[in-house]
Specification:
Layout lengths: L5 E6 L2 E8 L8 E9 L4 E4 L7 H42 L3 H31 L1
Antiparallel strand pairs: 1-2, 2-3, 3-4
Length: about 130
C-alpha cells in the first residue's frame, strides 16, 4: 500500500499536518507534526521551530484549497437538507403534531422563519439592485 506523504487531521477550522514516514529501521509508520493550518484565515503555522519546505507548503496549500471547495459544497448541501427538514416539519405539523408539541415549538419556529425570510428578502433585493 502506498502511503501519502502528508496526513491532515481535521480540526474545527483547519487541520494539524503530519509528514508520514517509514524511514526508520523497523519500517514502522511515523507521523511527524509539521504544521497547523486554519482554512478560514488561510494561515499555515509551522510546528515548533520547523521550517516548511516548498513541497510542504505546496501540499498544504493544495489540501487547503480542496478542503475549502469541499466545505463550500457541504454548506450548500446542508441548506438543501434544511429545506427538506422544513418540508418534513410542515408535514408533521399538518398531520401528526399534538397540541402540546405545537405549543412547544411554534413560537421558536415562527421567529426563526421570520428571521430567515427577512434575510433572504433583503439579500434578494440587493442582488436585483445590482
Amino acid at each position: 500500500m502506498e502511503l501519502p506523504d502528508y496526513y491532515f487531521r481535521v480540526r474545527e477550522n483547519g487541520a494539524a499536518v503530519y509528514r508520514v514516514t517509514t524511514d526508520n529501521r523497523d519500517r514502522r509508520l511515523e507521523m511527524d507534526p509539521i504544521a497547523v493550518v486554519n482554512v478560514r484565515r488561510g494561515d499555515i503555522k509551522p510546528h515548533g521551530d520547523r521550517v516548511l519546505s516548498a513541497a510542504d507548503r505546496s501540499a498544504i496549500e493544495d489540501w487547503m484549497h480542496r478542503r475549502q471547495v469541499l466545505l463550500e459544497a457541504r454548506e450548500v448541501d446542508d441548506i438543501h437538507r434544511a429545506i427538506d427538514h422544513l418540508n418534513l416539519t410542515a408535514q408533521w405539523v399538518q398531520s401528526r403534531a399534538s397540541d402540546a408539541a405545537l405549543e412547544e415549538v411554534t413560537d421558536s419556529l415562527l421567529l426563526a422563519m421570520h428571521d430567515l425570510r427577512s434575510v433572504l428578502v433583503r439579500k434578494k433585493a440587493d442582488r436585483l439592485k445590482r
